[in-house]
Please model this.
Amino acid sequence: MMEVSIKVAGMSCGGCVRNVTGILKALPGVSEAEVSLEQAQARVVFDPSAVSVEQLRQAIDDAGFDTVD
Ligand code: 9UX
Model:
């Protein structure tokens, strides 16, 4: 398992947090997703043989949020 923190811009309420958490947890290989509105970031524990950081970022972007470097 690997852990990554991804900065996420564009979340404005708890609904956004639930949405981002849900789309991350729906990806194959994701075992934990913890999203913070205050810190504007997502911490994800994942299996790198099943999903890449780039795919995590893409899923967040596709949901209408912006991952920031
Ligand atoms: Mo809150 Mo977010 O009303 O996608 S759910 S702004």
Q: What stands out?
A: Residues 14-25 form the longest helix (12 residues).
